[in-house]
Amino acid sequence: MASKQNELKLFLEVAYRPINDKSWFPPIEKEILIYVRDIIPILCKKKEYPPYTPLKIYEEIKPKMIEKLDPNLTFQQSEIDYGDIICFRKVLTDKIIFYAPTTEVRIHDIPVFYELLYMRIVIQFRPKYKYPDPKPEFELVLNKLYTYNDCLVGEFHHL
Description:
By secondary structure, the protein is of the alpha+beta class. The chain folds into two domains: 10-91, Ubiquitin-like (UB roll) (Roll), CATH 3.10.20.90; 93-159, no CATH class. 14% of the residues lie in helices and 19% in strands. It has three helices and five strands, in the order H-E-E-E-H-E-E-H. It has helices spanning 40-46, 110-119, 148-152, and strands spanning 55-62, 65-68, 85-90, 120-125, 138-143. The chain has a three-stranded antiparallel β-sheet with strand order 2-1-3. The longest helix has 10 residues, at 110-119. It starts with 39 loop residues before the first helix and ends in a 7-residue tail after the last helix. The relative contact order is 0.10. One of its GO terms (biological process) is proteolysis.
């Protein structure tokens, strides 16, 4: 199967009964608890931040459901499981001043960002007919919540 796929998945079955009076694995003395805060240095390293940069960590449960994770809870308490999506950003301080040029909007909140992605619609403008001199083509990115009138009065600058 591995030659037909990009990854090889291995599964391990643990035998709880001894075979020939020998146990397969030594008994587990205690549970290993992994806290959400334990992944902060790993996330920082991946983004080339200093090791203990303060982060806000979220779980994407589904496209419109993004929940902030408490770093003092374990993965089990946070219900983090195999295949769950974790997203994060630096904690922003009052000392950081944000400048957003009028042509670009910067989103600094992960749930708002995911909401905008979910509500985003791209409209493509192309000529209906072929012309000897090519006509320009362009795309316009809008939010599904905005009406035609919102766009006319300039409200779409919030996208």
